[in-house]
Amino acid sequence: MLARDLVDANTGGALERAEQALHRVWGYSAFRSHQAGIVEALIGGQDVLALMPTGGGKSLCYQVPSLVRPGTGVVVSPLIALMQDQVDALRLLGVRANFLNSTQSLPEQREIEKALLDGALDLLYVAPERLMTERLLELLHGSQIALVALDEAHCVSQWGHDFRPEYRKLSILAERFPHVPRIALTATADARTRQEIVEQLGLGKAAQFVASFDRPNIRYMIPDSGSAGARDRLWRFIRDEHEGEAGIIYCLRRRDVEEVAEFFAAKGRTCLPYHAGLDAAMRRQNQQRFLREEGVIVAATIAFGMGIDKPDVRFVAHLNLPKSVEAYYQETGRAGRDGEPANAWMTYSLSDVTTYRQWITDGQAGEQQKRIEMQKLDGLVGLCEVTSCRREVLLGYFGERFNGPCGACDNCLDPPITVDRTEAARKALSAIYRTGERFGVGYLIQVLQGKDETRIVQNGHDKLAVYGIGKDVPEPEWRRVFRQLAARGAIFADVENHGSIKLTEICRPLLRGEANFAMRADKPAAKKERKKRDVAPKVKPEDAELWEALRTLRSRLAAESDVPPYVVFHDRSIVDLVAKRPRNTAELAEVTGFGSVRIERLGEAVLTVIAAH
User: Which tens digit of pLDDT belongs to each residue from 101-136?
Assistant: First the structure.
């Protein structure tokens, strides 16, 4: 059965036909949030700019209209590695979907091009580089195009965190196809980035839909910062909170990725590396294992993740600082796409800040862009060091008002202890000043602690008044003082001068005794009994056997179709199946995610398993 055949062209208005497709093809009873308005605008031929959080259902906003409008929906996606899984998922629903990219042979590409010209495709996925070839543009001119969807539209903005120059060429679509509605979609764009998307893509008359950026199912945690022991702390967190569950660990450098993957593998978890230094076949294999196997962890650089559709990622961890609040929001948004509880865990050190500042300074961007990137980095450091509700600060960055506490971040759940460190801060600032603002944090701490180092003696710094005045403060605490002074803007690392620490005007009131300095304090680690997580935490104990039987069935069906298990049906569908225990196809149609095509293909197998329990 084809998905388009399930939509009755003679039924009511555009929105009614869209709701019919949503229920019969995808098995959902109603649109969420702004989906209905977006879908109705597109079906009516209007351009749209949609900002929706990761997991908010952006893909349905163009997939449904592509079935309702005549012609083929063209989807511009930045990562060809993910097109196969997206197409496989649609095909299981009876949608005639395909993609064009460099992984296909020439005969395969010609066959797909013919299907496009013959009107035998509902959706076609292409990369922006392929779309801009004259051959494909001419093919589109000879075809009936329902709409063009520009996914990850923030890539068009030089102010964004994933700028892709080829995205700017997409503005030609407005000229070449003036009567084809376009939709630009993104999950992460501040006001500046949104404005540039509108300008670069010619969407001045587009209907704009901005959903809440809040992901209430995600718990944000940024525990005591610093690189020392970070891996062990993360291991304890994953062991206690996410045994057997899938997750992503982001690292700054390739060597860190390899070491983290080995570390967690030695702990008994399946943890696979992913970074640009691996050959393409290995990256593809590790990504496929993450998508298709249960409970896999990926250790990765930021090269991994854009467009990941896996709904049951239960945690995203950062062992280093991302480069901006937008990057942090997008990367953490890969957790809990199914709406179930998930965790975002992060730690960082001042060296992360110094490294990013060095990269920004050495980059090829103009001075204005460098200043913006520095501001974005400072915004993220501020989020890390804040003592109030993190969600309030995070949403406020995107211009959304949220009155905390949220009850779902570490600061709200376990309010931080603040201590007066005015004296230590003044000593640190004095050490910076008296050594000539020419040295890094490590050296300054050695001076403050009165270390008998050759370099200190040669520089004559053992004769300074600040030498040894911080003997009573351990090194980790001094690093926290310097890090939080940097977060307040009182000092900064001069990346053009080997990371030497400089003073700013903000430090003057503190040095003069006109201001105090309170900072987050370490909390003693609470001893808690480790509890084994239930095998089926989302269902009642008496339903656990059926839960596992349905998961086993899903894995078998996924293997037979060579697709990830979540493509067969989501965990949320299993929860609904266990709760409702349908006895026939009519009752199965009331289960979340079971539309007509899925029932036709999988219904008998699902009902058999339920009947056996």
Answer: 888 899 999 999 999 999 999 999 998 888 888 999
CA distance readout (Å), 10 to 40, 73, 195, 405, 547: 17, 21, 39, 50, 40
Q: Report the length, in residues, of the chain.
A: 613
Residue 527 has pLDDT above 80, yes or no: no
- Going edge to edge, which strands form the sheet with 207-210? 97-100, 123-126, 72-76, 145-150, 182-186, 48-51, 207-210
What pLDDT, in 10s, does the model give residues 530-583?
444 444 456 678 888 999 999 999 999 988 888 888 889 888 899 899 999 999
Cα radius of gyration (the chain): 27
User: Six-digit token pair at 139?
Assistant: 């093919």
Contacts of 333 (CB under 8 A, 6+ apart): 53, 54, 55, 187, 188, 215, 218
Are 488 and 506 within 8 A, CB to CB? Answer: yes
Beta strands in 85-217 (DSSP E): 97-100, 123-126, 145-150, 182-186, 207-210
Most confident of 188-192, 246-250, 309-313: 246-250
Residue 431 pLDDT: 95
User: Which tokens sit at 231?
Assistant: 């891996």
Tell me which H or E stretch contains 360: helix 350-362
Supply the pTM of this predicted model: 0.76
Contact present, 573 and 593 (Cβ < 8 Å): yes
Q: Are 65 and 39 in contact (CB under 8 A)?
A: yes
Long-range contacts at 255-264 (CB < 8 A, ≥ 24 apart) = 256/319, 256/320, 257/299, 257/300, 257/301, 258/299, 260/231, 260/299, 260/319, 261/299, 263/231, 263/235, 264/235, 264/238, 264/297, 264/299
- Report which of residues 67 and 5 the model is more confident about: 67
Give the residue carrying structure tokens 């006895």: 583
Other beta carbons within 10 angstroms of residue 226's beta carbon come to 18
Count other C-beta atoms under 10 Å from residue 553's C-beta: 20
> DSSP letter at 10?
T
* Sole residue written with tokens 């008296």: 434
- For residue 272, CA distances in Å to 158, 310, 346, 603 come to 32, 16, 19, 35
- Per-residue pLDDT at 450 exceeds 90: yes
Q: Which residues contact 329 (CB under 8 A, 6 or more apart)?
A: 187, 188, 213, 394, 398
3-state helix, strand and coil shares in percent for the chain, rounded to the nearest 5: 50, 10, 40
Q: Is 320 exposed, middle or buried (0-12, 13-18, 19+ CB in 10 A)?
A: buried
Helix (H), strand (E) at residue 578: helix 571-580
Residue 298 to residue 286: CA distance in whole angstroms: 8
d(CA 38, CA 49): 9
Quote the crossing angle between the two packed helices 58-68 and 35-43, to the nearest 10°: 30
Of the ranges 346-355, 386-395, 513-522, 585-594, the best mean pLDDT one: 585-594
d(Cα 259, Cα 252) in Å, to the nearest integer? 12
Q: Of 216, 270, 215, which is closest to residue 238 (Cα–Cα)?
A: 270
Cα–Cα distances in angstroms (integers) from residue 224 to residues 80, 319, 412, in the given order: 38, 12, 15
Q: What is the DSSP letter of 534?
A: P
32: pLDDT strictly greater than 90: no
